[in-house]
Design brief:
single chain; 283 residues; mainly alpha; Arc Repressor Mutant, subunit A; 3 domains; two-stranded antiparallel sheet; two-stranded antiparallel ribbon; 12 helices; 67% helix; 6% strand; Homeodomain-like_sf; HTH_TetR; HTH tetR-type domain-containing protein; DNA-binding; DNA binding
Amino acid sequence: MAVRAVAESHNLKKSELFDLIWQKPMSVLAPELGMSANGLAKVCDRLNIPRPPKGYWRSEAVSRDVSKPEALSDPDEIVQIGGACRHERKRRVRYSPEERRRMMLDVARQIALSEGVHEVSLRRIALQLEMSEAQAHNVFSTREDLLVELAVEEVEAYEAARLVAVERGGSRVAKVVMSSLSRLRLASEQGAIFQSLMRNSKVRQRVNERRKPVRQAASEKHVSALLREKQVDQAEALASVSMLTALVIRAGDLVTSSTITLAEAERLCIPVVIAAALDRESA
């Protein structure tokens, strides 16, 4: 590993560095500590020390509207800035963009499941993966971009599992019933994170746009089957498919939010689904 020597060492409490960061611009403070402004910013990010936002020192309006945070974790932790002693530089592992994307989504999912979607941030993920916030933004430009990708992954995994369940059905009626049962059970088991993500209107809009061609293709398939099996016009067939789909999806949402139990959702939905499927078959 490479070895680097630094001219002077500064041992500070984390709270002391926090105060200094808010007393003078990074471009002024960093040279006093024998560092570059960018290097000092990375130290602050690694230690989870909040920094003044961009424009804070140049704009009175910004500095007036932004207050120094009051809370700081581990304020008495000793931080070494620079150092006359030799120290080893960590060997960095280079990951491909796709590897970084996968790692970030996995961490985001863990945070969302354990603490809630509101705790997911690019900065939090970068800290956990020991990468810079700039690297995180190179993968996902915004937090919203990351949440959209996470939501799309959730719904695609959900749909893949549902299709596997459908294939276990023998007759067409059995396949329809298996599809509905699978939707409800998956909502019970793993719907909470998806529902939380979709509460964000911008995320919901972008996910719906991404999924629109897939939904349209599935709807057209069901409508075509109805038109073949029953003497109904296209508008009635589309309404029938839309209503049954909406019923099962809404019941799944209620299960996810614990408004009703899975057993109650199955008792409410499955008889309606079976009746509709049998009605088509007998037509």
